[in-house]
Amino acid sequence: MLNSLYIKNYRNLREFKINSLEQVNLITGKNNTGKSALLEAISIYASRGDIFQIRQLLEDRGEDIRQSDSENILASNVQSFSSMFTDRKIDFNNKNTISIGQPNNSVVMRFVQYQDEEIKDKQGHIFQQKRIISDEDERREYTEYNIGFEIAFSNLSRLFSLDSILFPHSGDGLFPRKKENFQFIQTKNINRKINEQLFDSIALTEKEGYVIKALKIIEPDTEKIAFRAGGEYSTLRIPVVKLSSVSEVLPLQSMGDGMNRILTIILALVSSDNGFLLIDEFENGLHYTVQEQLWKIIFELSESLNIQVFATTHSEDCISGFQSILNNSENPLKGKGKLIRLDNVNGEIKPVEYSPSELKTASDHNIETR
């Protein structure tokens, strides 16, 4: 679990620090104050800087510009990866690095210049090594060099060549295979393709009961859920539900965005044991009357499954439901959540943290917290 968070140079989060975090954290703020960027950064941290997670984020933002023409691969990759840096700045010194995490436990990313070298070991074997050009004097010695992208975590690093579509690994260090368990629900994800895989992993377990309980928030007659083949020419399976009040099985898609959104959130939640759940624009597809009940389930399961939750919102109803459950005496995590508002102060994104009692006071007196 993240007890605090420091982000440097990631998108519009030039120098950003949250001093303390809780088990359930709700992020608010006006447009372009970095709410989505904050969730992206946490997903990079949770993945230990996994290159495929990074490329997925770039693709989702329309920044993953891939070229089949070999002459343009380097330029397009540099353009794509520079979009993660504040002001899209590209240079090769240690000052212009992205850092995400906590002291002594951060993912660090940067552009580098490097040379391919041949090294001979004591047995006379020759192998290739990529050596990073680290200072200006050394750069002046070379008329040609390669451009790469280095990702470091703890005392290990990987160097990826930017002149390749597949980003072959240089071989200089391996990250631990085990990453933090996390699920990232983005704004457009009313219904994710991954839902059927997540359901398969929890079917016929106690967690399936949690899914049914959540769906009952909107449709109290929900008895069972399953995934069935979507059609003769479809490779996807679709979710179907059995209601106690209807004899036939119904496709979940026919029951509205709310049911599909709750299924997406609850499947992601129960699949994030001992990790993180990230939800962008929590309220999407959800009527205000169901949000408080969903927060109740999220608080309960984040406690029992040891999950740290980060969600963003623009909705006053979402904040109200969150506050109501957070300060409920029956909540097992009473006081173990907080609201964090992001403000743009002269071009710098700054967090304003609300404790449970401060959030209740703001709610009671209709003080704006979005």
TrEMBL record:
Domain ATPase AAA-type core: 24-315
InterPro entries: ATPase_AAA_core, Bact_Antivir_Def_Nuclease, P-loop_NTPase, RecF-like
Keyword Oxidoreductase: no
Enzyme Commission number(s) from the entry: 3.6.1.-
GO MF term (any one): ATP binding
Keywords: Hydrolase
UniProt keyword annotation of Cell division present: no
Protein name from the UniProt record: ATP/GTP phosphatase
